[in-house]
Amino acid sequence: MVNKNRSNYKGEHILAAGVRTNTDTWETGINNNVLIIGPSGAGKTRGYVRPNIENGNESLIVSDTKGNLYRALAPSLKRRGYKVAKINFNDLAGGYGYNPLDYIRYDPEKGTYSEQDILSLTSALIPLTSLKDPYWDYAARQYLQVLIPYVLEALPESEHTLEYVSKLAPLMGTPGFRQLINELAMLKPNGTTLMRYNAASVITRAEKMDASIRGILSTNLDPLCFDDALALYSKPEKLDFASLGREKTAVFLTISDIDRSLDKLAVIFVMQAIQTLCREADACPDSCLPVPVRIYLDDFATNATIPNFDNIISVIRSREIYVSIVLQSIAQLDTLYGTSAAQTIINNCDQMVYLGGQDIATAEYISKKTNKPLHSILCMPLDKAYVFVRGRTPVFGNKYVPEPEPRSKVDEPDRTGRGTDRFAETPEPAPEMATA
Length: 436
What we know:
The protein is of the alpha/beta class. The chain contains 16 helices and 13 strands.
């Protein structure tokens, strides 16, 4: 029976000054995915991410460059009844632990590990560096799809980490590793390792090719296996991703804005969290999480991609999982995901806030959406923003200012949870370029 009580999903989401949207997707008919575009210093974090964390009622996963949001907001979130956790990818000595191999499911009846989870993890660990010639990356993934289940099936639980995957990588294709596989085959003839090894064994026979592939493996794994990272994998206190959909929880992922070497690990964290939450939602009677979850992907387009993110963002709406993607330009998405996938990601964000900028391609996109001249988009005043919501007239107005704002009667949210609706207004025209 479908749960008709929607009180957990009602709330307001701040997009600009005086512009808030209702978060109950059953009432609005749109999804809660939001795309925020603006250059450095435009107010993406200060005027969007922070105020919505302060005013929201969802569980949260927040990418938190430099850790400023955690320091500022953790105390107030705890007072509001949130469980607050921090995983520090900048200083791995502090916060909760995280081990990607912990989230690969095991089927005790079959005695095998989930191939789907292994494939997802290998795709994140070895992203495609070239869309035109992906062969070598795919081959390296095949090797990794042997190493990960071997670690899980053959080694003690204390060694189920990327450290031991990395230690085994140089042995792939050697007689010594074939002996290890033969020994495991006697114990687990139907195991995941043997199945994946048979698929990869054709490549290992070509010596020069094998050496190149092992080099790609080392390039991708070695940066994740230094001392602090190894300590992160073995920490006893780790998050239960599924619990975010049952109780209000705020998870802050501290990511360095200078050293991007661990972006890949943060991306894997987000990917595995989404996968776990989707499965948790599917197990609920109404196929949606009792507590909605919003993921703030601030500084989203860096040097790592979430595998199949264009597909993921298309299916999470019904499960009450939302993403807020914070970018400097649309070109960043194109570079990482390719034009087709990037457009799919954009199309699945029913709400968009444009905070200005100098990127021509992004300004041309906004120009077409607003039917305004390109120069008027490029010359937007610094305190203005365009707000787009699917099916509504765009709003051109002031950016949200985090200081307390005087509220007129028309701006008061109604008590049904629908919030203020200003999208029926005719947008103020963008300023034209001044002439001499």
